[in-house]
C-alpha cells in the first residue's frame, strides 16, 4: 500500500470524507490516470450523498481500469439515483470479475427484492448462503420475500436467524419487529423495536414502527410522540410516510390543521405515493371540502385505476353528501375490478339500504 492509499484509509476511518476528496483531487492532478484516486473520490462523494458527482468520478475510474470494486460502487450510486435496473446491470458486470464478490451479490439481491423480482432475489440470497453460511442480509431478504408471500411463520424464523447472526445490528431487530407487527403480536414487536433503539437510538424507522402500533391501538397521542421522534431524526424530511402517518393520527384526535399540514408535506416529499391523496381526501371531507376531496380521489384513480380504494373514497364522500345513486356508480366501478371484494359488496349493500330507506321516507312524507 503506497502513501496515498494509506492516507485515504486513515481519513476514511476518521470519517473525514471532505478531506478524502481534496486528497484525491491533488493526486489526480499529479496522476490523471490513477483509477484508484477517482474511485476513492467517488466513494467519498457517494458517502456525502453527492451522487451526480460520484457518478462522474466512478465512470472515470471504470474507463481507466474496470474492476469489481468500481463497478459495484457505480451500482450503488445508480441505486441511490433510483435506477435499480441500471444498478442490477452494474452488479452483474462486477460479478463477471469475481462471482463471489459479496458486495455485488448483496446489492443485486436487494435490488431484485425492491424491484419485486422475488424469485431472482431468492436465487441470489440462497447463492450467498451457499458461500457465506448464516450471512444475515441474505437471511433477511429470504425472510422478507416469505413475508410478501404470506408465509409469516417462515419469515419470522428466518429473520430470527439473521438476528442471531448479527445480534448487534439494529436493522435485523427492526425487521423482526416488523414481522411480529404483521402477525399482530404487538408486544413482541415493541420489544424488538426497543432493542433496535437500544442498539441505535438514532434509528428513525424503529420509532415510526412503534408509533404505528400505538395508532393501531387507537392511542393516537402516543403514536404522534413516536412519529415526532422519527421525523426529528430525519431533519430533511426524507420519509414521506412519517408525515402521512402523523397526519392520520392528528386527524383522529381532531387536529385537522396539523393533519392537513402533514399530509401536504408527505405529498411534497413523494408525489408518487398516491395513498396520500386518499388520506388528504379524508381530511378535506372532515373540512366539508367535498369537491376537493373528490378531486384527490380522482387523482388516485387516474394513476392507479385498478386500486379499489379511489372508488370507495369517492363513494364515501358522495354518501356523506347523500348522493347515494352516484355513490353506487363508483362502487360498481370498483366491483368491475374486484367483483368478490367484501369491502365493496358491504358498501354496496349499505348504500342500497340507505337508498331504500330514503325512498320510504319520501313516500310517507308525500302521503301524510
What does this structure look like?
By secondary structure, the protein is mostly helical. Among the domains are: 1-65, Tetratricopeptide repeat domain (Serine Threonine Protein Phosphatase 5, Tetratricopeptide repeat), CATH 1.25.40; 71-133, Serine Threonine Protein Phosphatase 5, Tetratricopeptide repeat, CATH 1.25.40. It is 79% helix and 0% strand. The chain has 21 helices and no strands. It has helices at 3-13, 17-30, 35-47, 51-64, 68-80, 84-97, 102-114, 118-131, 136-148, 152-165, 170-182, 186-199, 204-216, 220-232, 240-252, 256-269, 275-286, 290-303, 309-320, 324-337, 342-366. Helix 11 runs antiparallel to helix 12, helix 12 packs antiparallel against helix 13 and helix 18 (290-303) packs antiparallel against helix 19. The termini are far apart.
List the helices and strands and how they pair.
Blueprint lengths: L2 H11 L3 H14 L4 H13 L3 H14 L3 H13 L3 H14 L4 H13 L3 H14 L4 H13 L3 H14 L4 H13 L3 H14 L4 H13 L3 H13 L7 H13 L3 H14 L5 H12 L3 H14 L5 H12 L3 H14 L4 H25 L2
Helix pairs in contact: 1-2, 2-3, 3-4, 3-5, 4-5, 5-6, 5-7, 6-7, 7-8, 7-9, 8-9, 9-10, 10-11, 11-12, 11-13, 12-13, 13-14, 14-15, 15-16, 16-17, 17-18, 17-19, 18-19, 19-20, 20-21
